[in-house]
Write a structure and sequence with these properties.
The chain is α/β, with parallel strands linked by helices and about 700 residues long. It folds into three domains: about 290 residues, Alpha-Beta Barrel (TIM Barrel), CATH 3.20.20.300; about 230 residues, Rossmann fold (3-Layer(aba) Sandwich); about 120 residues, Sandwich (Immunoglobulin-like), CATH 2.60.40.10. It is about 30% helix and about 20% strand. The strands form seven sheets. The protein has a six-stranded mixed β-sheet with strand order 9-14-13-12-10-11, sandwiched between helices. The chain has a four-stranded antiparallel β-sheet with strand order 18-17-22-23, with no helix packed on it. A three-stranded parallel β-sheet has the order 3-5-8. The longest helix has 23 residues.
């Protein structure tokens, strides 16, 4: 069904409603209109990395973990699974009259905000710090979720529009001050791509103000969205964000004024209760009937495009699709591809034939919370790292000994014990083993959204890059044992790994790897599969290298503008192979610019890897300080194999964003760096290789 056809149906239906009925449809809990055969519908559903908060579903790795795979096809396929399972659950539940929250087909995902600061608790919901990577993965997610059928299989939502990345505790009153250049270069490109390329059905406004105006009622942002980009879907507020207009931002005096301001400036749907005052706003002459009608038409257009009112080709999808074997296999593949090997002195892969006893230690070793991140569904079976390793070594003759080692963040595990009650056990277990797998990190209770996370002192944000003190002391206890040790990090953001870098033999970042994460971890640790993920965020040496958290300028932020060497750079990740780019040429044709790249695996193990292309406009004052990612492709090379791949380079690679926030063509020399990392000195030091540089004159 085309949008035009759906909109015409919506206009006819809405014209039969009273004004009160139309206004009622602008709330996320849209009531039924029995006389018109309209069932109730709850617009609020989540699907960040699987159908969330509504019972059983395939649980994929958290978004940041999937971003680390640098694989748009993987993200597309995961989103396709999510929408299939969402349809299956909707079909089964609505047939029984269950139209509750988290049961609909309007998924408020993906989160394409830029992870500009590692302190932000919700950063792991995003695809990282780079606008180009975020746009490619975001578009892939939207296309996979919405499908290409006659109807939308599900409706995606680009959030949070725009300029939103903490601090969480201030979001209801915070004003993000942003230059036009940073807006056009960093904060808006992913949203534009999702609208123009992905045809995303919905956009959600952020809580905060942007340069003085609330994001959910922002003239400049709405002009970008509907005026310049041609967005035709519906706009929804973040939950209770419109209430913030008069309780936090002080741009409205009361709920009536706030409702009028939001709908007049393009917010069609209210997640919250402020639009309960919409009729009063109309009666006071603050909003017109035409404005209320248009918002209702947009919302019913989406419902028609989903086939919710007159049926769709997806009505027969069965509940047996939920957690289908092939869906779980894709989740495990995502965990495998997204794991990032940060250090390896030769310990990995582990050789089980040389082990008699293996220790698995740490608060995240047997933690389900450390598998799922936030905005998650519920799996029928979880494989923690401990379970995955024990299953993998079953019948191998290797004894697996375990110890929790410490509480995730408290100074003792048992309330009646003295501080550090589990360190001695962990050290003893480590001493008794031939090798140690140490699982540390965070979970959604320590980094997450305001109101969800337990670290209420920071409203879900991190105050530092350090692990909790309990875990830092555990690392010291394990290090004292003196045994070969691999540290498995399970977190969604930059963690200071300076101690692990110095004291342990290997570091493997698993992120929050999903319900199949423990299986994947075992296959990676024992070499069935080579790690091949790349960091989608910078791991900084210190927060001292960063501006204040509240400063939204991109100066000194992320790999594109940082000046100090990274602890581990964006785009970095080792493998068990040895992939290098041996040849590269830039080819111009009628179809545009592309790179023809020859990659070779000089190692003795098969591996995936990611060919990355970074560009610097050498003669433009508007170019970012450092080369920026402009193209990439995941490749797989057997041991000793050479492969030539052609990687399209988008036209935007030879443009810059000027001081007015406009993307314009640039002249002069462009240097393209082509390799398996970015071209910074730290990456070259860590890998022992340097990307090839090719220059193009424009």
């Amino acid at each position: 069904m085309t949008r035009k056809e759906a909109r015409e149906k919506a206009k006819v239906l809405v014209s039969q409603m009273t004004l009160e009925e139309r206004a009622g449809q602008l709330r996320y809990e849209a009531p039924a209109v029995p006389r018109l055969g309209i069932p109730a519908y709850n617009w609020w559903n989540e699907a960040l990395h699987g159908v969330a908060r509504a019972g059983k579903a395939t649980v994929f790795p958290q978004a940041i973990g999937m971003a680390a795979a640098f694989d748009p096809e993987l993200v597309h396929d995961a989103a396709e699974v999510i929408s299939t399972e969402g349809r299956a659950k909707y079909n089964a539940q609505s047939a029984l009259g269950d139209r509750d929250i988290f049961k609909g087909l309007t998924f408020w995902s993906p989160n394409v905000n830029i992870f500009r600061d590692p302190r932000w608790g919700r950063g792991h919901e995003t695809y990282g710090e780079d606008p180009y990577l975020t746009s490619r993965l975001g578009v892939a997610f939207v296309k996979g979720l919405q499908g290409d059928g006659e109807h939308l299989r599900a409706a995606a939502c680009a959030k949070h529009f725009a300029v939103h990345s903490g601090p969480e505790g201030e979001r209801h009153r915070f004003n993000a001050e942003v230059s036009k250049k940073d807006m056009g270069e960093t904060y808006l490109p992913a949203f534009e791509a999702l609208v123009r390329e992905g045809r995303v059905e919905a956009v959600m406004g952020a809580y905060n103000r942007v340069n003085g105006d609330p994001a959910c009622a922002h003239p400049y942002l709405q002009e970008k969205l509907r005026g310049q980009w041609g967005f035709e879907g519906h706009f929804v507020s973040d939950c209770w964000a419109i209430k913030d207009f008069f309780t936090g931002h002080n741009v409205a005096e009361n709920a009536v004024d706030a409702a009028a301001l939001a709908v007049n400036r393009g917010c069609d749907l209210n997640c919250g209760d402020t639009y309960a005052f919409m009729l009063e706003a109309y009666e006071r002459g603050l909003v017109s009937e035409a404005t209320i009608t248009e918002a209702a038409v947009r919302l019913f257009t989406t419902r028609y495009m989903l086939g919710l009112l007159d049926g769709s080709e997806y009505d027969g999808i069965s509940l047996t699709e939920v957690e289908a074997p092939e869906h779980l296999a894709l989740s495990k593949r995502a965990a495998l591809e997204g794991a990032v090997l940060l250090k390896n002195n030769g310990l990995l892969p582990l050789d089980k034939s040389k082990l008699r006893t293996l220790a698995v230690i740490g608060p995240n070793a047997d933690s389900r919370n450390a598998l799922v991140g936030n905005y998650n569904g519920y799996a029928s079976r979880y494989w923690t790292v401990q379970e995955g390793v024990m299953d993998y070594l079953d019948d191998s003759g290797v004894r697996v000994m375990t110890a929790m080692g410490c509480h995730l963040f408290r100074d003792r595990y048992e309330p009646l014990s003295q501080p550090g009650d589990r360190y001695a056990e962990a050290e003893a277990v480590a001493k008794a083993a031939d090798a140690v797998i140490l699982c540390v990190g965070l979970d959604w209770t320590l980094e997450g959204e305001e109101g969800d996370a337990s670290n209420s002192y920071a409203s879900g944000d991190k105050e530092s890059l350090q692990l909790p003190e309990s875990q830092r002391k555990l690392m010291e206890a394990v290090a004292r044992a003196g045994k070969p040790t691999v540290l498995c990090l399970m977190a969604g953001s930059d963690i200071d790994l300076s101690y692990a870098r110095e004291h342990f033999d290997a570091i493997l970042d698993l992120w929050y790897p999903g319900s199949e994460g423990g299986k994947a971890a075992a296959e990676l640790l024992f070499g069935d599969v080579s790690p091949s993920g790349k960091l989608p965020v910078t791991f900084y040496e210190s927060l001292d290298d960063l501006p204040d958290f509240e400063d939204y300028s991109m100066e000194h932020r992320t790999y594109r503008y940082m000046e100090m060497p990274a602890q581990y750079p964006f785009g970095f990740g080792l493998t068990y192979g040895d992939v290098i780019v041996t040849e590269a040429e830039l080819v111009q044709s009628a179809d545009g610019l592309m790179a023809r790249v020859r990659a070779e695996n000089r190692g003795d193990r098969d591996t995936g890897d990611v060919v990355q292309i970074y560009v610097k406009a050498e003669d433009s004052a508007f170019a970012p300080r450092n080369p920026a990612l402009c193209a990439f492709r995941r490749v797989f090379l057997k041991a000793g194999e050479c492969k030539t791949v052609e990687i399209p380079i988008p036209d935007t690679a030879i443009t810059v964003v000027n001081g007015d926030g406009e993307r314009v063509p640039a002249a002069g020399r462009f240097t393209f760096h082509i390799g398996t990392t970015q071209p910074d000195e730290r990456s070259c030091e860590l890998t022992g290789t340097r990307p090839l540089a090719r220059t193009l004159e424009i």
